[in-house]
Specification:
Elements (H helix, E strand, L loop, with lengths): L13 E5 L1 H6 L3 E2 L5 E2 L3 E5 L4 H12 L12 E5 L5 H13 L4 E3 L6 H10 L4 E5 L1 H6 L2 E5 L8 E5 L1 H9 L2
Parallel strand pairs: 5-6, 5-7
Antiparallel strand pairs: 1-4, 2-3, 7-8, 8-9
Length: 167
Amino acid sequence: MRVRCFTQDEQCGTIQLDFQLPMRFGAEYIGPDGEKHRPIMIHRVVYGSIERFIGILIEHYAGKFPAWLAPVQVKVLPVSDKYLKYAQIIMQNLMENEVRAELDDRKEKLGYKIREARLDKVPYMVIVGEKEQKNGTVSVRCRDLRTDQQDMGEMQTEALIQHLLLR
């Protein structure tokens, strides 16, 4: 017998009658008739197993976790090696503010790095180049907006951090 907290396809919490474990444990009790009897165990599990719960989350979000849940919230993408030092400063700032970020310092074209970050389903991509370094800003792209709205524009790192903290 199972009681489901989600739809029939998504099983999470369960209540089960178990006939096997008492037998494995050799559990017995003496009944009112003075004879030995085998008990039935009742198990209650809120999430079933953590693996099942994580599986439900992955399936529900199709791997595109919201920023607060994503293992990597921001991918920092320098346009070229010339801006790597600035990208590292941005990374340090993000990490000091407990933003889960990664720096893509590979010698690849920017378009390729953006495509890889989108395939990895990273919610935000921070692009740093000459203009951003000169202005002390970052250019932000969002994974979830429509194609014509993905570019969130240039902003201060602090504004990005505040945006992420509200997500």
